[in-house]
Amino acid sequence: MNAPQPHLIFGEVLFDCFPDGTRVLGGAPFNVAWNLHQLGESACFVGGIGEDADGRDIRARMDRIAMDTRGLFRHPSAPTGQVRIALDDGEPTYTIVPDQAYDDVPADWAKALPETAALLYHGTLALRSGNRDLLERLQARARRRFVDVNLRAPWYKPTDVLALMRGADVVKLNTDEAATLAPDVAATERPATLLARAAIRSALIITQGADGAGIHTVDGQHWQAPAPTVDGFRDAVGAGDAFASVAIIGLQHDWPWATILERALGFAAAVCSLQGATTADAAFYREASRGWRSA
Q1: For 99, which DSSP code?
Q2: Contact 207, 242 (CB under 8 A)
Q3: Would you list the DSSP string of 233-279?
Q4: Cβ atoms 24, 16 nearer than 8 A
Q5: Considering only CA atoms, which of 262, 284, 78 is closest in space to residue 276?
Q6: What are the residues whose beta carbons fall under 8 Å from the beta carbon of 9, sequence distance 6 or more?
Q7: What pTM did the predictor assign?
Q8: pLDDT tens readout for residues 209-268
Q9: Cis peptide upstream of residue 154 (ω within 30 degrees of 0)
Q10: DSSP 8-state class, residue 115
Q11: Sign of the CA dihedral 231, 233, 234, 240?
């Protein structure tokens, strides 16, 4: 039997540095790749690490859970990424350091990667200063494209973000990001406006924090659901990445949109019980995904 085509997950890997001194491995695309792997999907993370202790730590952690490391580019001079996080009632704000290893992955690195992919996932942060040629090469070998907007000030221009979204199969963003990208229309009109302006092929997902999320499709359908209660809430870091991970699984396995919404919200709520976005505890993922494959 042929091995399944992997998902190519392109973007930043970094350490989230919390106020108490805790350092948690993260970066939205890396979180998605980690989640997909731990949930039983074939995923190849593509991004840059430094020739430093943090870079070695990242590779070692990936090796410990048998993640695919083919896409890790070791940058000869730039450091492994860092983000400093402050928490206000559990909600994160980010200070993102410039000129990191993930900002500069050569286009030729695509030669080290799978020739075909089920889906390409990318955000916008790792495209703030380069990597566009690599993105084009990755896009050419994937059947679908999922864009997770993840705006991080001051590292974006709305017109550039709309261009990066253009033609994607699915785009995910939050309510604030939707307002930033379509400030000239009322909130109720933004889903249809963004679907049209970015020529999205299938669906737009808008997450709303504690209020849940909605999925809007190009044929005018809409599903909305509240966020489930979180047992043992610690922080919301990685909740959106958790949602995106399950949305990708749902696309791969042809789940109905309503099912994708329910399961993605449930997994995002479960991740809010962690400090940071991921865990090496395989039992967490088994419990969180119980029953998914049977329907």
Answers
A1: S
A2: no
A3: ----TTHHHHHHHHHHHHHHTT--HHHHHHHHHHHHHHHTTSSSS--
A4: yes
A5: 284
A6: 29, 30, 32, 33, 36, 43, 44, 45, 46, 121, 122
A7: 0.94
A8: 889 999 999 999 999 999 998 888 988 888 999 999 999 999 999 999 999 999 999 999
A9: yes
A10: S
A11: positive
